[in-house]
Amino acid sequence: xxxxxxxxxxxxKDKYDKPTKRVHEMWQTDFTYFKVVHWGWYYLTTVxxxxxxxxxxxxxxxxxxxEDVTRILDSAIEKVGVSxxxxxxxxxxxxxxxxxxxxxxxxxxxxxxxxKHIRCRPxxxxxxxxxxxxxxxxxxxxxxxxxxxPEELKLAIGSFVKHYNNYRYxxxxxxxxxxxxxxxxxxxxxSRRELIKEKTLRLRKQENKKQRKKELRLQKKKEFAxxxxxx
Length: 231
Prior knowledge:
Helix content: 40-55%
CATH architecture of the largest domain: 2-Layer Sandwich
Strand order of the largest sheet: 1-6-5-2-3-4
Oligomer: single chain
């Protein structure tokens, strides 16, 4: 099968041979769904930065159409400003093979903006593991409650996104937050942690040395007292 040059279909692997090394090298996008009581189903579309896991943009939609995808991409592009400055490599877009991502309208949109679209292998969602895990974490909390208006659901999602981006530590990011990586604060944070660790280990070593000396003095006193009683 010969694919369009604007599209690339990844092989079925759990991770990339060449992981992203910088912010905005690649974005992942996908839909997930929620039910609003008496309103029906709503569909959350999200753009997440692959390198930092930072949620760039999200929107709660009534449908899952190509126009919803292009609208969220417009929002992400506007927020990061990639359309206002001259850059060599624009973000690649990674998605699944849903109808909205296979549409001609999206193909034309990506071509006009000189952005490359990568699609994961069908029936292999692990390729989009980062946004899949984000959706799982989101639903684990959001689905604990019932929502009776779309606005209630939007507020809950917005609150989670703020927490996820700015306060939730990720083991895969060396226990810093997505915003720390996205705004390039993580190296300073990790360096400061390493200094604190070294200082703590040094102080602990000194305390252990003092404790051993103290124990040795007590042992000598006991031995001396024992010798005195024997004589």
